[in-house]
Amino acid sequence: MKQLISFNKLLGYYEQQLKNKDASLAQRAKHILDAVAPYPELRDGFEDVAVLEKHSDIIALLLADVFPTVLTQNEIKAAAIPYCNVVFNQSKRFEQLVKDAGDNFSLEIRNMPDKMQYIVQCSVILNFFYGFNIDFKRPLFYDIPDKTGLMRHYRILYNADFMEITPTDKALKKFTQDDIDELLENFDDLEYWKTKFPPNSFVVKGFVIANMFDVTAEHSISEIKSTLIGNNKRGSENYMEDFENTFKSLFNNKDIQVGFSGYDQDSNRFLKIYGKGISSFILKDREDESCDTLLCESSKGKLFKEQNYFAVSNIKKYYEKSGHSQPYKNLYDQGFRSCILAPISDGDKLLGVLELVSPNQNDLNSINATKLVDVMPFIVSAVLRSIEEEKNLIDAVIQHECTTVHDSVYWKFQEEAKRFIAREAVGGQPSFKEIVFKDVFPLYGQIDIKDSSTERNLAIQRDLMIQLAEIRDILVEAFRLLQLPIYEELIFRVESNLDEIKETLHTNSEQAIFDFILEHVNPVLHHLKREDSRLEALILKYESSIDMGTESYYDHRRNYDESVTEINRRLAAVLDKKQEQAQAMFPHYFERYKTDGIEHNMYIGSSIAHEREFNSLYLSNLRLWQLQVMLEMENVYYGFKSQLPVKLDVASLLLVYSTPLSIRFRMDEKRFDVDGTYNARYEIIKKRIDKSYIKGTNERLTQKGKLAIVYSQKKDEREYLRYVRFLKSKGYFTNNIEIVELDGLQGVTGLKAIRAEILYRHENTPEKTYTYKDLMQEISG
Predict the structure, then answer these.
(1) Strand-strand pairing, 733-741 and 650-656
(2) Which helix (H) or strand (E) holds 357?
(3) pTM of the model
(4) Three-class SS state of 324
(5) Can you tell me the distance from the alpha carbon of 706 to that of 754, in angstroms, rounded to the nearest whole number?
(6) What is the DSSP string of 470-525?
């Protein structure tokens, strides 16, 4: 369109008024027409908006009936060019709004880019010139900040009574329904619209009257609803900031802050909600707090019994009146002087509390609290959905942490579950079939804590000796003071147990000594503590060193257990992180176990890959990846070994098995296992391989500082020697690489192994590499 500002239609109205029987109206019409007569451009139309300022007095006179002076302080109103940001002859209230917005503010219709403006104008022409019924109407808004900086929102309604549309020679003579259908299918294609509506194909003369209404409250409620419904929004960095700003607009107060606290019905406690930017002002800096401690009787009655908001317009007054008690203390200490606490409830069940606070007295009160009535249903819905999402997340964590239904095979379980549901829906007797994957290649690896049994027994032995020695000292003192022969006999039995475990801890020694202490020693100590105050301090000192969980001395064992737990935790984290990369290369089944070290199984093949085509290249790639990860885990371990309470060693082993096999998900055990008698040979090897010896020697296969790769076929030996040479060139191995033959295991013979000495990198000198021996010297030195 060629837009011309014109008052032609309005002047036509006044020309008709000349014939009005009411002389005063006719006289006024003549006065206006005479005043405008010297300025024909006001009738003919003009594009230069500077003319508006030049003739502002005449235009004001011309529009006086449309803009009555008596309403100018109240109505938000202006004359305007439709869908553009040009306004004139504003009402006094509109002028003040724009002035309060500041010098840098420029009026702009929300979400009306030039492209959209062009297409909307074309839609108007289709309706009012060509006679089609195109629903082009959409709400228009001005967003104008007030003098405090809060954003206010105004709905724009156009009165187009004074508009005229005239075609030029560029305009199409007619439109067919096919043309309309094509336009409707290409609403966002501006260039296509321009082929039907060439620029300047129409002249639009006139102006519109833009009436505006403050819809900030409605807009804020809509924004709150949108924010709470949108999952993607709730995870964003500025979610709470945007949410809080919406409440500031709703209450027309820039000082308001928003917080939340959860409620646990079982413990009757308020809980901190974890999320980006979420605070709880009633909890202050606490993680949780009893409701009985945190709330007064009045607030408990409002929130719990009435399930209504609790408003305090003067926190200072009630803080002093209550003797500095809760809930006013926490709020007062943080500088807040008014608040509203609103219950978030599902039926009669309290889920949490919405907290609105302000540093100013009377900002929040029982009157403006009623504004929450319109938004609380959306907050409740969002909280209920969050609870459901949390449950789903918990289920997902349990699925990930506690079962072996791995992501790579989940599709198979989904297919079977869908079949199960479909069968049940038609009244059948469904059963969940066992999941089997055929012709998959296994990979097994372990990084094992060396001599873990010996170290554990040594820790138990030391703890038992210390405990028995302390018991002996108490009984010796008891015999000295009381001279009862029974105590001397008990001392003899304690010392006999001590002598028995000094050299060797037998399998049944720990339980035998535990039973002895429980049945024969503890009753005596209990008796002595009550009967003789001279022994009480000595017995209490002994009892303070006893662990409540194990009911025994637990110092060396704790150090050992904590060391093993930390080793497993850190190495599992490395393996899990690296697994994400491996799955991205090609999907495969993966599971790991924490024992005295970390074991892992992997299976790869076309039956697991689902829609991906399997190639032996991916098996080779996974084998090389596994080898590299084992080396990285070794390096990570020796990087933190010095921090452990017990300085244990580890040894790594891989099992190569080139024969494809089948795995079946055992429903009763909730885990995968190899399927079939022949395939069971693989499981036997896995379970026994780490205890194997080099043939003809007493030397164990697994050694600290070396990686063992066990295999049975020559082609596997050639493949892995390639990988070892490649990794040696990258500084992972020394030249100390050997091929050894293993003693036969029960039911398994013909196994061989590559054993390669690992090069380590110390964190203090990452550019250097060390053998195990050199690394230990570097760490200890």
Answers:
(1) unpaired
(2) strand 349-358
(3) 0.52
(4) coil
(5) 10
(6) HHHHHHHHHHHHH--HHHHHHHHHHHHHHHHHHH---TTHHHHHHHHIIIIIHHHH
> What does the CA dihedral 99, 100, 104, 105 come to, rounded to 10 degrees?
-80
Tell me the pLDDT band of 389, cut-offs 50, 70 and 90: low
For the packed helices 714-729 and 616-640, what is the interaxial angle rounded to 10 degrees?
Answer: 50
Closest CA to 604 of 579, 635, 629, 640: 579
The whole-number pLDDT of residue 436 equals 83
Identify the sign of the CA torsion 294, 299, 305, 308.
negative
- Residues in contact with 159: Cβ distance below 8 Å, sequence separation at least 6, in sequence order: 208, 209, 211
Tell me which range, 415-429, 510-524, 761-775, is most confidently predicted by mean pLDDT: 510-524
In SS3 terms, 41-57 reads as: HHHHCECCCHHHHHCHH
Other C-beta atoms closer than 10 Å to the C-beta of 447 total 25
For residue 674 the two structure tokens come to: 């190899």
Identity of the highest mean pLDDT range in 262-266, 289-293, 415-419, 635-639: 635-639
Integer Cα distance of 135 and 128 in angstroms: 12
Q: Which residue has the higher pLDDT, 667 or 334?
A: 334
Question: Do 70 and 41 contact (CB within 8 A), yes or no?
Answer: no
User: Is residue 401 over pLDDT 50?
Assistant: no
Q: Which two tokens stand for residue 107?
A: 């009026």
Residue 38 has a CB neighbour count (10 Å cut-off) of 9
φ, ψ dihedrals at 503, nearest 5°: -85, -50
Q: How far apart are CA 164 and CA 286, in angstroms?
A: 67
Question: For 759-780, what is the mean pLDDT?
Answer: 69
